[in-house]
Design goal:
Elements: E1 3-9, E2 12-19, H1 23-44, H2 52-58, E3 65-66, H3 69-84, H4 94-99, H5 114-117, E4 123-126, E5 131-134, H6 147-161, E6 166-171, E7 175-178, E8 188-191, E9 200-203, E10 206-212, E11 215-217, E12 224-226, E13 229-230, E14 235-236, E15 242-247, H7 250-262, E16 274-280, E17 283-286, E18 294-295
Antiparallel strand pairs: 1-2, 2-6, 3-5, 4-5, 6-7, 7-10, 8-9, 9-18, 10-15, 11-12, 13-14, 15-16, 16-17
Length: 311
């Protein structure tokens, strides 16, 4: 029987499904992987005063800040996806969340030019110094669209380094990462949603992320907003109901599923990614010319079902 271990982090439940070795060996390594997820939570929690993101926000408009390798690599991925998605993925949405009342612990200065605070060109990375700089006061990173995936990648790295290679990891049932498949199987089968005829993905050494335009209410009297924001319109998106992406790693899948729901075109993501989009509650569309990662037909095995759950 596979061993299941779990922890709470980033506002959701992370779970590891491990197999292929004795339970005591799997448990010891799995606990190390969960610890890595908790470390990532501490670094990338925009709500904690002692996180890397809060420190960068306090230093915005000042000199560069030297970063740990994991955070620097993650910000490099953020900048790359932001450029490729034409800005529909944006790691600098903190000020917009404040404006919409979706994060009410501080207030945004009404005199601030929101457009300049959301401009990804204002996030400057220096590979030689391993540093990042937010060039304007008031800029603030929010990595809710990619942090769960990045945490799964770090946890998987721990598993592989310690010799555990048969595993499925997921964060909040919206992002999953597969290593070697179970014994006798070609892949881990993951169902996207609870419906009887929900599509499924076959994963082995790949990751899947599902994003959806679910509504949430802010603290200000501005109505409901999708939890995925369109940075170009500075409001919640209604571009798609949902999108699913299969990618080589979980951070990439996480970021691109968000970008698709926010408004980017199916032609924007790199060609090696598998794409599935949902325009109505009962209509999933495969992107043509993409890897055949998804299967849209009845399925009876779910390990585990995925639905879109925000950070």
């Amino acid at each position: 029987m596979p061993l299941r271990l779990a922890c709470q982090a980033m506002g959701t439940r992370f779970e590891l499904v491990l197999a292929g070795q004795r339970e005591d060996q799997l448990r010891a390594v799995g606990e190390l992987a969960l610890e890595e997820i908790q470390i990532a939570h501490g670094r990338w929690n925009a709500f904690a005063n002692d996180s890397v993101l809060s420190h960068l926000a306090r230093c915005a408009g000042g000199p560069p800040v030297t970063l740990d390798p994991e955070t620097f690599d993650l910000l490099q991925t953020c900048v790359r996806v932001a450029k490729q998605s034409r800005g529909f993925f944006n790691p600098l949405l903190g000020p917009l969340l404040h404006k919409l009342g979706l994060r009410d612990e501080t207030k945004l200065d009404p005199a601030e030019d929101l457009g300049t605070l959301l401009d990804v060109k204002g996030l400057v990375l220096d590979p030689k110094g391993h540093s990042a700089q937010l060039t304007r006061p008031g800029m603030q990173l929010d990595l809710g669209a990619i942090a769960k995936g990045a945490a799964l990648d770090l946890a998987a790295r721990v598993l592989v380094e310690e010799g555990v290679t048969c595993a499925l990891l997921h964060g909040g049932t919206s992002t999953a990462l597969a290593l070697d498949p179970p014994p006798g199987k070609d892949a881990w089968q993951v169902v996207i949603g609870p419906e009887k005829h929900a599509p499924r993905a076959h994963l082995a050494h790949s990751a899947l992320s599902v994003s959806a335009a679910n509504s949430r209410r802010g603290s200000l009297p501005r109505g409901d907003h999708s939890h995925i924001l369109d940075p170009h319109r500075s409001r919640g998106t209604r571009h798609l109901k949902a999108a699913a992406v299969v990618a080589p790693n979980a951070a990439t899948a996480d970021a691109w599923s968000t970008a698709l729901v926010a408004g980017c075109l199916p032609s924007d993501p790199p060609q090696g990614l598998g794409l599935l989009t949902q325009t109505t509650s009962d209509s999933w569309l495969l992107a043509p010319g993409r890897p055949s990662c998804f299967h849209i037909e009845p399925c009876t095995t779910t390990t585990p079902p995925l639905t879109a759950a925000p950070f």
